[in-house]
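Can anyone check this?
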Amino acid sequence: MVSIYYVEDDAAIASVVKEYLEGKGFQVTVCVTMERAREAIKHLVPTLVLLDWNMPDGRGDCLCQWIRRRWAGLPVIFLTVRGDLSDIVAGFQNGADDYVVKPFELEVLYSRILALLRRTRSAKEQYLSCDGIVIDQNRRTVSCHLEEISLSPAEYQLLLCLMQHKGKTVTREKILEQVWDVSGNYVNDNTLTVTMKRLRDKLCRPACLKTVRSVGYRMEDTL
């Protein structure tokens, strides 16, 4: 499902947009401050961000820059009353992918979102996240609460396997097959146990990485 974070402090506008987009099958989370938006994105990277310019705790262009420095491929659309040419140009210069001026028709916004998702369809699959742990599959990097973590190839593949099946229990047999045996490297069961321990230690033993006794492992959001 397409997940959208809508950064907007006007409750009336946010409610209308949220209801309309959820009726189109999107999952919409409203963030009434930029700080809430930052915490939400650090916890779970969405498919797309809708961003107002004037927020109670700062300017939307600053949040857009913050997003770009960390998630270069995350689509961002400004939804703002600031419609002067200089504002629109500044929005794009600060990293926006599109710019929609209030008031706007909901059908037009929906069309712009679909068009942007078509252009950035590869970016939608770029980030996998769970409780502040983020995999950037294009760069093959892992960060934990914005701090990049160095993993061995086996640790990275183990985390990737679990993230790709987030919310589901992955058996030890399937992990061994997907992470090691697919390369023709036979390993014993203890190799998985040792690799998992090292992975957990590097990620500061996150609560979202769970052991299902005698079966395997599961990653799931705790909030």
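Reply from J.R.: I decoded it. The chain has a mean pLDDT of 91.
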